[in-house]
Amino acid sequence: MIRVCIVDDHRLIRRGLQLLLEAYPDIQVVGEAEDGDEAIQLMHQLEVDVMLMDVSMPNGIDGFTASEVILQNHKHVHIVLLTMHDEEVYIQKAIQLDIGGYILKNSKGNELHEAIHAVHRGEKYYKVGLPEDQIAKLFKHSKKDYSILSVREKEIVRLTVLGYTNKQMSQRLFISPKTVENHKANIMHKLELKCKSELIQYGLTNHYHTI
Fold it and tell me: Which CDD domains match (predicted)?
């Protein structure tokens, strides 16, 4: 039996999801919350295996923030984001937070059931509007770890994202333009990136422009 908690700011949606899930004998709805704050509090009161989490909840903590807190403090819990947002930036954020599942609210009932079982097994389940190869690429990029970069290489990434030229970087870091080029080549090799635009995109994704 998989114990599920439903988090959505609309009561009718919570009720509809509960009725849908009650049709499956292997799932038990053990609680519900109307915002992220309440969801976090419920985790101290209930035994939950999988949490169905809305993303946009205007009257409380949003789904991403709540998910991050819950995953940090309750390692056994798995989360499926259930939302209307199919934009890449939302999906990218979910992957960065290592959220197990992401499906749209207009998905079929059997997909929700599949998502719950998949994340409960420790798998990823992302059924969204993006092509599967694009989603795979987002996951591939998320696995590259900036910890493999040196302090100097990380600074090169940051300055690249901020739009510095090689000459400007060399002046700022007191190294030659050739050394800057060598650092960039090493970074691209370590992160398995092919071009400058991929490096910039990856730097933006990992918030290097705010460091």
Answer: LuxR_C_like (cd06170), REC_NarL-like (cd17535)
**Entry field: residues in the chain:** 211
Per-residue pLDDT tens digits for 108-149: 879 999 999 999 999 999 988 777 787 887 777 665 555 678
CATH tag for 2-142 (out of 3.10.20.30, 3.40.50.2300, 3.40.630.30, 3.30.465.10): 3.40.50.2300
Output the CA angle 100-105-107, nearest 5 degrees. Answer: 85
Alpha carbon distance 47, 60 (integer Å): 22
Count Cα atoms within 13 angstroms, Cβ side, for 136: 3
Q: Which helix (H) or strand (E) holds 3?
A: strand 2-7
Q: What is the CATH number of domain 146-210?
A: 1.10.10.10
Give the neighbor-by-neighbor strand order of the sheet with 50-53: 27-33, 2-7, 50-53, 78-83, 101-104, 125-127
